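User: Okay, second chain of the day. Same drill as before: sequence in, structure tokens out.
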Amino acid sequence: TYLVPELLRFIKTMGQELPAHTKALIIVSNIFVNYWYILLLIPIITIFIIYIGIKVSPGFYLKYDEFKLKVPVIGPILKKIILTRLASFFAIMYASGITIIECIRTGEEIAGNKAIEKAMHQVGQQIADGMTLSDSFESTELFPPLVLRMIRVGENTGALQDSLLNISYFYSRDIKESIDRLQSMIEPAMTMILGSIIAWVMFSVLGPIYDLITKVKI
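Assistant: Same drill. Structure tokens below.
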């Protein structure tokens, strides 16, 4: 918004054909200079629209929560956090003698995500209709293979509580490792992004100047 326009003003006075990357820099700079208020309003308006959509439309709320689970990097971590919570509560309640149906109903309430909540409700209905627990979870096409295998093992061996605790333990460890990896990636990623922007500005500004100097006849 300040430095690039000053530099480009000098470039334009040279009166020569500008390369494509310099023209692109001019366009981007003009957008930030002339439409900065729109760039600030876009995230605010987006958040407001999402908030209103969640409040007034259950279908929008469901689609939004489904989208959150599919966001690269962050989505899988969020899904594992929810599954860890569900497995832990399920194991504790099942060990206390609470029926599987009641465990599923409680899972709906503590899921914290409409997509997972819908899947748990579907599981509860299918179990009530006589389907096995593992087949019910598999039919939703939402739960990872690890969860399905561990539930099936727990059903076959009669140690469902232990299988659920193993799911919780594995995902808890995996979540910590995933977050650590994400944190370690942030600094190099920001360095690469900022370095790329600086390199783009340098080449876009210094390139035409260098071309002009090379064309000067002494």
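The chain is about 85% helix and 0% strand.

User: Thanks, on to the next one.
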